[in-house]
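[Solved] Which block belongs to which protein?

Original post:
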Amino acid sequence: METMLTALAPRLEALLGADRVITDPVRLRTYECDGLTNHRSTPGVVVLPDTAEQIAAIVRECAAAGIPYVARGSGTGLSGGALPRADGVLIVTSRMNRILEIDVPGQRAVVEPGVINLDVTRAVRPYGYYFAPDPSSQQICSVGGNVAENSGGAHCLKYGFTAHHVLACEVVTPDGELVELTADGPGYDLLGVFVGAEGTLGITTKITVRLTRVPETVQTLLAAFGSIEAGGAAVSAIIGAGVLPAAIEMMDALAIEAAEAAVRCEYPPGAGAVLIVELDGPEAEVAAQFAEVERLCRDAGAFEIRIADDDVQRALIWKGRKSAFAAVGRISPAYLVQDGVIPRTVLPDVLARIDALSAESGVRVANVFHAGDGNLHPLVLFDDAEPGAEARAEEVSGAILDLCIEHGGSITGEHGVGVDKARYMPRMFTDADLDTMQMVRCGFDPAGLCNPGKVFPTPRLCGEVPGKRKGPHPYEGKADIF
């Protein structure tokens, strides 16, 4: 395979120019992982295309040579979804960062995959619109990556995920053909299949996104509670009252400690948990619902409530939450981030079980999550210099996912499966389920070259008969290729 890559590099240079093809071992290390740094693999070759036609030509070259390839945006993913292949090509789309069209009457924009999420909002805000999906990494994550992972964000409770805001994608298929997938055509919803497929079905090169009108008014409060269970009870009460906030976010004491150390967000001292609730919409409706939310938080035991009077105070309230993942580095040398989902009704019970797991194992867990839709982001802390610490953290992390499944939830809400959660897929799905999913993948990518080794615990070869394998898989024991 190394010989094949060596032979491929000059052909890629002929397509892109020598300055857009990276083979130097030191420079390749830049791309060895995404935001989940405990999975690393140095790519064989990195290419930096500027156009869709160049990506299509690269894919055709890889297909002809039988060489696997992986697409990467900004590298902010948290599941190892853009983990490169040592025997393959990493296609980096960060140079494809143009906003191609803003259609205000049609409430849509057309962007390249390397466009930064927040830059879409900045470009359309003067017209009274914004791009609703808002991951915590929205200042640096790319729209192409959002499409691959079907990213959510703090406001997904009311506005949904990336899939709800994508109207069309231009895609390079695994045989190197450029095709258009749309949401409003007849037949199968192939766009719905593609968004959230984690780059295993093709590479998006152009995205038409839906724009959302800026609401008339926005109100934000921060409520401090003595315990995370009390905060969870407040969430259940708010949703149970029929209020649909734009966002309900929660942080526990350990996450607050990290945020204070990193950005000095000045949340109420002594809080076991803080709840951020944001309402938006018509002014009269927001005012009525906001009073109800404030009352419910006090009834649940909030000992302090802060209400933002302007955009500056609102930004200060959100500052700690938006920085939480990175801030944990201030209190722990390393951590694993999980992404399980549970029904809102069991939030207090599951949070108590996570606390018990942490106490029993001696492994600290910081909880930061989208409380409104039950999307947990427990940060499992460990010292990677301590022998066995990572293995203990992995055990706790897996036990948290088991809790989510046990309570009728899922192993991921928005970060994706990637390589990190692939081994947990059989805990949630049957063999028949997994075979059906893999047959869809094979329908798009018969050769299995497009981001292989992701999502499925044991990828089967296209053409294999579904069912339990009676002999070793051809890839078994070759962990380096995953």
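(Second protein starts here: sequence line, then its structure tokens.)
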Amino acid sequence: MDKMWASFIAMGLMLVATVIITFARQKTKGFVRFILSFVAFLLFVPILLYMLLSMI
């Protein structure tokens, strides 16, 4: 059951990162685009951890 929740959290964070990247590339420019892309990139650290946790 815990593995299921870990995978759901990883999928949810991936969805959030995808939405942030899509918004940053379509609607913003310059420094704001960089900050949003960087935040989305930082989300991949917990995504990776939750993904590995769900596989163990």
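Accepted answer:
You had them paired correctly. Confirming on the second one: The longest helix spans residues 2-27.
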